[in-house]
Amino acid sequence: MNRYIELWIESLPQLLEAMVKVTLPLTLIAFVLSLLIGILATVMRTRSNVNPLNWISRFYVWVFRGTPLLVQLFLIFYGLPRLGITLDTWTAAIITLSLNTGAYVAETFRASVASIPRGQFEAARTLNFTKMQTLTKVVIPQAVRIALPPLGNDLIDLVKGTALVSTISLVDLFQSGRQVAARTYEPLAMYLEVAFLYLIIVTILSWGQRYLEKRSSRYVRSANA
Amino acid sequence: MLKLEDLTKSFEATTVLDNISLDLESGETTVILGPSGSGKSTLLRCLNLLETPQSGTLFIEGDLVEFGGKLTDEQVRTIRKHSAMVFQSFNLFPHYTALQNVALAPVLNGKMNKKDANKLASDLLDKVGLGAKKDSYPDNLSGGQQQRVAIARALAVSPDYLLFDEPTSALDPELEAEVIGVLIDLAREKRSLVVVTHNMAFAQKVADRIVFLEGGHVLYNGRPEGFFSSTNERIRRFLNIFETV
């Protein structure tokens, strides 16, 4: 046991560095981009009368939800060079993670907007709100509250999904732990430490999610009970 | 002045309103009665263009729209400006307080700044007896209170016509009474009200005009006395239901 504790303390700086330099920024950048992609895909799907835009959005969600993240990563990093598109590891990782998470976010947003009662739209119409006013004052504030829990899930999946970038030779938290494990022949100790660090990230994110949920649900009685 | 000519509305193969013509005077309370499925809610919703009729003409306070083609946003907004709707299910915005619900439309419609709108909203909530509930969210209000906020919200856009779509059907009798009380106040002020309801006492005591619909046709249009003493077989059958309950 003492040996494990020594190992954990000794390896912690290296793992934390990989976490702060790769896993966290990758998560953050990909999540912000996936939100933008999700908004775009939702707008194309729900507000567009132009069928091609609607089709593109549905096709995108279909493909990126329907195939493994690892396969997408390999296609973009190893496959695209065959078409003359060569991306560096960071770019490939960010593009893949954002597109993958974006597909889930798009579904989250679509479901949230769809769950707003018809009467809300009718009330806005009879009060002569413009479409933009209805969206910003009525739909989005309510949709955000509904979207928060599933969005939290999307973010947590993304954190864990970043571990796959180790396969295209990015040294993230997982890859860093792997290197130490290989050097010390202590896979149990190292992967326990890696798992624990992911758990900490996810726990902090869950706290943040719960805080936002509480804040955005102030107007709902049952949420305060 | 609100005038309908040859209004026809159908949903796919079903004709819900069949060539309806109607004149409603300003300052009157019109109660629309009829069995369920007779088209009374649809008629009300056509006045506010929540439903678009297939043909006919709607004339409301100097603005006219002819149905048939696609209406422009501008046309719809112009017609809609003249009326405001109160729904059976209230449809308050749950993420805004009572005051914010009422003050929102005047600000978004560009009629008032926020300060004036809040003042107006506050006055209107006092008027419907909810001055003390200004900062409550709809979820913390009873059904009757929510509906009164909804009435204040409709009043805030200063509509020529207030449209009520079964405003008390979701409420139990005690709460119904408090909402009916507000409607009676509005009728006394000579506001123009168009009310779809099953509340016969209200129809009998408050209405200036009864419109009875059956199968998308107007079967009666006139004073309440004439309606409640009508010898028309269909109307008698309708009234008997309420007398036996």
UniProtKB/TrEMBL annotation, chain A:
GO BP of this protein: amino acid transport
InterPro entries the record matches: AA_ABC_transptr_permease_3TM, ArtM/GltK/GlnP/TcyL/YhdX-like, MetI-like, MetI-like_sf
Keyword Cell membrane: yes
Protein name: Amino acid ABC transporter permease
Organism expressing this protein natively: Rothia terrae
Location relative to the cell: Cell membrane
Keywords of this entry: Amino-acid transport, Cell membrane, Membrane, Transmembrane, Transmembrane helix, Transport
Family: Belongs to the binding-protein-dependent transport system permease family.
NCBIfam families tied to this protein: HEQRo_perm_3TM
Spans traversing the lipid bilayer: 22-43, 55-80, 188-208
GO molecular function, one term: transmembrane transporter activity
GO cellular component: ATP-binding cassette (ABC) transporter complex
Claim: Transport is one of the keywords in the record: yes
Domain ABC transmembrane type-1: start-end pairs: 20-206
Membrane topology per record: Multi-pass membrane protein
TrEMBL record, chain B:
Compartment(s) where it occurs, according to its Swiss-Prot or TrEMBL record: Cell membrane
PROSITE patterns attached to this UniProt entry: ABC_TRANSPORTER_1, ABC_TRANSPORTER_2
Keywords noted in UniProt: Amino-acid transport, ATP-binding, Cell membrane, Membrane, Nucleotide-binding, Transport
One Gene Ontology molecular-function label: ATP binding
GO cellular component term, pick one: plasma membrane
Domain ABC transporter: 2-240
Family: Belongs to the ABC transporter superfamily.
Any single Pfam family the record assigns to this protein: ABC_tran
Membrane topology value: Peripheral membrane protein
InterPro entries: AAA+_ATPase (IPR003593), ABC_ATPase_HisP-typ (IPR030679), ABC_transporter-like_ATP-bd (IPR003439), ABC_transporter-like_CS (IPR017871), MetN_ABC_transporter-like (IPR050086), P-loop_NTPase (IPR027417)
Record protein name field: Amino acid ABC transporter ATP-binding protein
